[in-house]
Amino acid sequence: MDKRDNILFSDTFDVKDLDKGGKRFDRVARIDGRSQTHDMSLVLDINSELYPLDAGDKFKLTLATSLSLGDTKEAAAAFGKGEANWRAYVNGDERSLADDYDYVMFGRVYRYDDASGSKVSAFVSFGGLLMCLEGDIRHLQNFVVGDTVYLLMRKI
Predict the structure, then answer these.
(1) Dihedral of CA 81/141/35/5: which sign?
(2) How many other CB atoms are found less than 10 A from the CB of residue 27?
(3) Angle at Cα 154 formed by Cα 94 and Cα 88, nearest 5°?
(4) What is the pLDDT of residue 68?
(5) Whole-angstrom Cα distance, residue 16 to residue 58?
(6) pTM of the predicted structure, to 2 decimals
(7) How many Å apart are CA 89 and CA 87, to the nearest integer?
(8) Which residues share a beta bridge with 59?
(9) pLDDT number for residue 135
(10) Is residue 39 within 8 Å of residue 133, measured between CB atoms?
(11) For 85-133, what is the HEC assignment?
(12) Cα separation of 107 and 122, whole Å?
């Protein structure tokens, strides 16, 4: 877990394979990756037109509950009251976690599979682009079905 309480997971991944089962959609690539630090396995759909990756590329992946750089509890309370919203980040009025990354998606955890003991899988849908992150329960214990998640990526 990162120092900020809004970071669910962060690691560097190597792209092992692209579109392993064949290309299904024109602008979508399915990435198979392996993390360098936490021994995690990743299968992720991305918009390859906006963010092209090749086998052998390295990227940093961060999953967060909010884009806020400040106190996330305070930001969440303000967002619920309508005092703050995502437009402040987009318009550049306020710095956010997204400023340090190249590719950002917003999605929802739709499944959490812990049937195989200490290895668990977290499944997130980003408007139809899917992600499966699999590994030790220590790194995925804060994922809750129904919670929203920001995925942030940047090439290394």
Answers:
(1) positive
(2) 9
(3) 15
(4) 85
(5) 9
(6) 0.84
(7) 5
(8) 13, 155
(9) 95
(10) no
(11) CHHHHHCCCCCCHHHHCCEEEEEEEEEEEEEECCEEEEEEEECCEEEEE
(12) 12
Whether residue 71 has pLDDT greater than 70: no
The partner residues of 124 in beta bridges, in order of sequence, read 109, 131
Which structure tokens are listed for 2? 């990162």
Whether 32 and 45 have beta carbons less than 8 Å apart is answered as: no
Please give the Cα distance from 115 to 141 (Å, whole number).
14
Q: Give residue 112's pLDDT band: very low, low, confident or very high (50, 70, 90).
A: very high
Section 6-30 average pLDDT: 91
* 8 sits in which H/E element: strand 7-18
Q: Do the beta carbons of residue 124 and residue 108 sit within 8 Å?
A: yes
Which pLDDT score, from 0 to 100, does residue 83 have? 44
Bin 117: left if φ > 0, else alpha if -120 < ψ < 50, else beta: left
Question: Is a pLDDT exceeding 70 seen at residue 93?
Answer: no
Closest listed residue to residue 105, CA positions, set 56, 52, 63: 63
Asked if 9 contacts 29 with a C-beta cutoff of 8 angstroms, the reply is: no
- Residue 121 backbone phi and psi in degrees, to 5: -130, 135
Q: Counting every residue, how long is the chain? A: 156
